[in-house]
Design a protein that fits this description.
alpha/beta; 4-stranded mixed beta sheet; 18 helices; 43% helix; 10% strand; globular
Length: 435
Amino acid sequence: MKKIFWRAVTAAVTGVLICAVGACGPKKGTERNLVTHEDENRREVNMFGPTDRSNPDAVNTARTAQEQTVIMAEKELGLTVQFRTYTAEDYKDRTYDDVCVDRVRANIDDMYLLNPDTLQLLGEENLLADLSGLPNAENLRDVVKVSNTVNGKLVGIPQEIVVYGLFINQDIFDRCGLKLPNTPEEFKECCRVLKKNGYDTPIGANRWWLENFVLAIGYGDLYNGGSTEQEIEKLNSGETKLSDYMRPGFEFLKELIDLGYIDAAKAYTYEAIEGEGPDFMAQKTPIVMAYWGAANAETAYGKPDFNMKVIGFPTSRGQMPVVPMTGYGITASAQHFEDAMDTLNIMVSDEALKMYAETNKVISPSKNVQVDCVDALKPLNDRVNENIYVLGSNANMKVEQWGNTCLIVRMLLQGSSVEECMAEFDRLQEESLAK
């Protein structure tokens, strides 16, 4: 995803500029870094992300939770975390990902909130530190370690496991006599009935999140069939074609478009939640897709005037949540390396993550932290607790999944055929094998 709105939300739930740093400082293994301007004894860690430090009276609880974990670290370590912030106005047409990549390569900041494709890219370039040695990394769920390990190094740790699902207007479904769908065929039948009952476009979509249908259908068996490692090895070696996994999901998505259940032209121009959100909240659109935290955020879908349920995407194995992994990464040559590592270690401690999860009502990356969720999220939460989900990002795959699938779905929205989309997956796989 390249949209800054999604980045801002991710920063809040995974906790996850203008002035540049002039020169690189000491490297890992040197004496603890001290800032020489203003106060020789002042210690700082520079954190780059999509959100700034909020005002004391801010009502954004998600951002406050992230900041509270930062404050924990500041108090315990006696340092200051400086927020360096991305804004679209500052960077014009340059995405958050693009800016992060450039800043990491230039060694400008110490710590970054990074998205899955960026974590994988920078990890492969050996520009991110290995976080597996942090004491609190021992408490992480296996899904975090699997998703964010590149070349044997844990390169990112989130403050939340982000889960995507379908947001359903249960009241509309009840009025139309519909049950929540489990399989692709059941989902299409729901859309048929909804359209027959006057909901011209049953699915509200944007240009960033339709890949969840594809990933859920494509990887449902891979991640839940008991042979995940072997199947990924075959993909990485070229023995299995990536397009073979992607084809069923793209054919399903194409059918939804052809039947008028998704408006491809609108979806291609819509930004996440900003485009389809108003019609969903006004009960004009029965179905949208979003991340877990949107069910808690008042600025998204946190206070609907109807009964809402959040379920997984339809697959042959039933409702399937999609889990793309973001995370905080630290540059391998950070100027304030040791302080940055100590800061992150406190931010991902069980104490900090428990406070964060309880505030935001989210799934914690720590296996020791459990938090009750709102009623709307219970169907999705049940599947995750049963360890039934697919990874939307997996750094063990040579071809990056989340960003590439999103871009190829956009080709479909612009009129490309399924075969043309599959050819692009084949090209990416061949390119990865040539490296």
